[in-house]
Design brief:
395 residues; mainly alpha; 73% helix; disordered N terminus
Length: 395
């Protein structure tokens, strides 16, 4: 999920424009207009893909799952990346752009998941590609109006989703061949938005050149992935490590982590996510990304659970008000799912390192519980926010 709505993506800058980590909790909890429940079905499509994707992943590790989830075991990756993250990022982008046509992106991505879950595996990749193409068009639409490095990075991330999905849908590469492109989609989307929000910190010309060089190396690795499988994934991993270091040094979270409340929580999510980005990149740099290996399992889940989901957890109190116009008041309970997520991932990665399959299995189950706890806690906060608004009206 993208890290935060970009101010450049919103005509008139009417939505969440400042760095969420610098906004007071009351700003995130504010919901001045009626809830946008008409957007909820699109979000539900994403969470359906998440539920089946998580269930499919657990089934692959031997946990008893409902037949519908177990039968989707081969689609664990596409459901998580295209079905969940694709829908959520595309929906956020559509809300930010405020153009009706942009909502086709989350809709098509959600329909791709529905097609996959109903056995239409020939149609699903093309629907996911269609959704990615609309997201890319939306990103380019903004880039044409605001030609900044952060927006170019976000658009490049959307292009990576399109390229990887198109190569897979056309049968040019196997599913694993799209993986590098999909990882770049998520990493570049988050990095681009953090690049924008880090403008509040002074950034030297050398730092800007370093960022551009890292992104350049990332694309060299992607373009060489199929032709040079021995070194291209390792180069990709090295670029991820360099990007993690760059983000940790240049993100506003380094300062806002000293504050309190929601501001500190978001900063903790960001900084802990950068640690897992570095871990995942380091594993790929050292061992490559060969499917079925412990290094493969450790690297992918460090990146997708430790890095990307840490961003989701951190920005849900900001994104939900922006997308659904509902208040999500912060409290200290938000830390519980985050702590469980990191503990579960540490157990899983440790199991991969030690060859302890039971640790991997239990780490996966704990990760699923962390995601469930996150969803439940967010729903609880939304209900609490509605009660607060109701009392406010009565007073």
């Amino acid at each position: 999920m993208s890290a935060a709505p970009s101010s450049a993506q919103r005509p008139g800058n009417n939505s969440v424009g400042a760095d969420p980590a610098s906004r007071p909790p009351s700003a995130a909890a504010a919901s001045p207009r009626r809830p946008a429940w008409e957007r909820l079905p699109l979000l539900v499509l994403g969470f359906i893909a998440l539920a089946f994707g998580v269930g499919a992943g657990l089934a692959r590790l031997g946990w008893a799952m409902p037949d519908a989830a177990a039968s989707a075991a081969a689609l664990h990756g596409p459901l998580m990346v295209c079905g969940f993250f694709g829908v959520v990022i595309a929906l956020e982008r559509a809300v930010a752009l405020n153009r009706l046509w942009a909502y086709a992106a989350p809709l098509l991505a959600g329909l791709g998941s529905a097609a996959a879950l109903h056995g239409h595996n020939d149609v699903a990749p093309w629907l996911w590609f269609a959704g990615s193409a609309v997201l890319l068009a939306a990103s380019l639409h903004v880039l044409m109006r605001q030609r900044e490095a952060f927006m170019a990075t976000i658009a490049a991330g959307a292009a990576c989703w399109s390229v990887g999905t198109a190569l897979w849908a056309a049968g040019i590469v196997p599913l694993q061949g799209a993986l590098g492109w999909w990882l770049a989609f998520l990493v570049l989307t988050i990095a681009g938005e953090r690049l924008e929000l880090s403008r509040f910190l002074p950034r030297s010309a050398a730092a800007q050149r370093a960022f551009a060089a890292i992104i350049g190396v990332l694309f060299v690795a992607l373009l060489a992935w199929q032709a040079a499988p021995a070194w291209a994934p390792r180069l990709f991993g090295a670029a991820l490590v360099a990007l993690a270091v760059w983000l940790a040094r240049n993100d506003l979270a380094r300062r806002t982590v000293r504050q309190r409340g929601l501001t500190r929580f978001i900063a903790v999510c960001l900084l802990s996510g950068y640690v897992w980005l570095a871990v995942g990149g380091a594993v790929i740099a050292a061992d490559g990304l060969a499917p079925g290996t412990p290094a493969y399992d450790a690297a992918l889940h460090a990146l997708l659970l430790g890095f990307v989901f840490a961003m989701v957890f951190g920005h849900a109190p900001v994104i939900f008000p922006a997308v659904l116009r509902v208040a999500v008041p912060y409290d200290a309970s938000f830390y519980a799912p985050l702590a469980l997520l990191h503990a579960a991932l540490a157990l899983r990665v440790g199991g991969d390192v030690l060859g302890a399959h039971d640790a991997v299995r239990w780490g996966a189950l704990m990760s699923a519980l962390a995601l469930l706890a996150f969803i439940a806690n967010t729903a609880r906060a939304v209900i609490a926010g509605r009660r607060m608004r109701t009392r406010g009206r009565q007073d």
